[in-house]
Amino acid sequence: MREKFHTTQPIPVASLKLDIDNFRFYGELSTQKSCIHAVLDDNEEHAIAIAKDIATVGLTPMPIVVSKNEQGDYIVRDGNRRVTALKCLNNPAICDEERLKKRFEQIVKTATIAIPSAVECLESDDEDAILNHMQRQQGGLMNGVGHKDWNPTNKANFDLHRGDKTQNALALNTLEYLKTKGMKIDSKFPITNLQRFFDANTKQVLGISFENGVISCSDENLFYEVARRVAEDMGSGKRDVNSIRLTDDKRRYLDEVLADLDKEPADPNAPKVELGGDPASKTNPAPTKGSRVGGRKTKAAWDRKRLIPNKTPVEISTEGGTERAQNIFHELYRKIDVREAPNGAAVLFRLFIELSTEYYISRNEIRIKEDNLMTKVFSAAKYMHSCGLIDEEEFQIMERAKHSNEIISTKSLHKWVHSEKYHPNAQTLCTFWDEIQFFLQHCWE
Q1: How far apart are the first and last CA of the chain?
Q2: DSSP letter (8 states) at residue 296
Q3: Residues with Cβ < 8 Å from 440, sequence gap 6 or more?
Q4: What are the distances in angstroms from CA 409 to CA 392, 396, 397?
Q5: Which residue, 163, 166, 359, 423, could crosslink 159 as a Cys pair with Cβ 3.0–4.6 Å?
């Protein structure tokens, strides 16, 4: 098949014709303008994301496949979304809506690399060859012949290799640990199920914590025995996601495993060490809030100068379109004294929550019923819970944020910004951040 295609000279983007027979919108298109509208209307945020990617990373090396029509025009057979994005970047005026036009103009304005005005394509005059290529590219796995997506474990391995955060980091690290102990892990292991298993209760019972990609535990033998048993059950299919979906399900399963292994829960007061570390290196547990260190009482977590604590795990994406969120994060993290300017901090905090939530919703294509902050936050939290990113306890925290009688709520944020009667204070704001920091962290991972 490959010999039926050849690389063209660079073709001006303006000269490329979108395919009115595009199979995504088959029978619905008749003009070039209708082709552009179809791509933008189908998923505007995806089109914007493609445009931002082109403007910051560059055009992907995946081929744009073209063929000539009877008039000698180049018709885009595969790659219509990318070409649509290129057309809008090269000439934002082709967008009928002023709002869309301005979005593409802003992307062009903040582009970090030159936006291509002409592109090399793969051309063929063999219709069967083109259709065979499209089927293998777009038609799914096709018994192994077509495109095969990465499974969650593959994605987690890639993130780890690249140094990026991964949503299944604790599960992936657990499996790597088990491999060092001689356990064989299948490449199709249901890693998301294992990640879901490690909720707050499980980590407490096993005496483990997970920070900066490192597992620490107070009883390595307990962790190893339980982790191995759970991995065996999940790898064999004995336990699936339905058997650990709810918090009570996970607790019952963990109790069964402990009973079968004749194990007791970890001592909650025992010091934790990194897996493979020296227990003697941590003879004293970390001080708790309100304890005394060297005769001086430690401050409460909320008693700080900045809204965002120094060791926050929240890291803002640096991709195009996130500049405002980056700036607000920096101001709350490094500049604004929340004790001196609680009103200013509250306004920026509310805006940061909204920008973070919208970023997560856009990346995960989450549909929302109402365009308000409460609905956005709860929809994002519900999606995180369904994916096993947050446990039942964390989900309940976010669900309570819907209620107006809760101090830690989206209603409180609204009142602090819009009501004369409600005045935020540093303690409440910092506590609010600490309560939902996990949610904001997941929004940007």
Answers
A1: 40
A2: E
A3: 314, 352, 353, 356
A4: 18, 12, 9
A5: 166
User: Could you give the maximum distance between any two Cα atoms of the chain, in Å?
Assistant: 88
The domain locations on the chain are 2-144, 152-282, 323-444
Please say if the pLDDT value at position 349 is more than 70: yes
Secondary structure of 177-227 in HEC code, one letter for each residue: HHHHCCCCCCCCCCHHHHHHHCCHHHHHHHCEEEECCEEEECCHHHHHHHH
From the CB of residue 14, how many other CB atoms can be counted at a distance below 10 Å?
A: 12
- State how far the Cα of 434 lies from the Cα of 375, in Å rounded to an integer: 21
pLDDT of 74-106, one tens digit each? 999 999 999 999 999 999 999 988 999 999 999
What's the sign of the alpha-carbon dihedral 407, 408, 409, 415? positive
Q: What is the pLDDT of residue 164?
A: 61
CA proximity to 353, closest of 409, 304, 424, 407: 409
pLDDT tens digits along 190-203 = 888 899 899 888 99
Q: What is the CA radius of gyration of the chain?
A: 26
| Other beta carbons less than 10 A from residue 431's beta carbon | 16
Average pLDDT over residues 131-146: 86
Give the residues across from 214 on adjacent strands.
211
Q: Is residue 424 within 8 Å of residue 343, measured between CB atoms?
A: yes
Mean pLDDT across the chain: 85
Using the predicted structure, report yes or no on whether residue 20 has a pLDDT greater than 90.
yes
Give residue 126's Cα distance to chain centre: 41
Which of 418 and 121 is assigned the larger pLDDT?
121
Q: Residue 136: phi, psi to the nearest 5?
A: -75, -30
Provide the total of helices (H) and of strands (E) in the chain, helices listed first: 17, 11
| Total residue count of the chain as it appears in this document | 445
Mean pLDDT for 159-178 is 78
- Please provide the DSSP assignment of 236-283 as one string: HTSS-GGGSSSHHHHHHHHHHHHHHHT--PPPTTSPPEETT--GGGG-
Distance CA 398, CA 392 (A): 10
CA distance 205 to 438: 20
User: Are 85 and 50 a contacting pair, CB within 8 Å?
Assistant: yes
- 3-state DSSP percent of the chain in helix, strand and coil, to 5: 55, 5, 40
Q: Which residue has the higher pLDDT, 92 or 314?
A: 92
Angle between helices 169-180 and 152-162 (to 10 degrees): 90
Continuous segment of H or E residues that includes residue 233: helix 220-236
pLDDT tens for 25-79 read 988 999 999 999 999 998 888 999 999 999 999 999 999 999 999 999 999 999 9
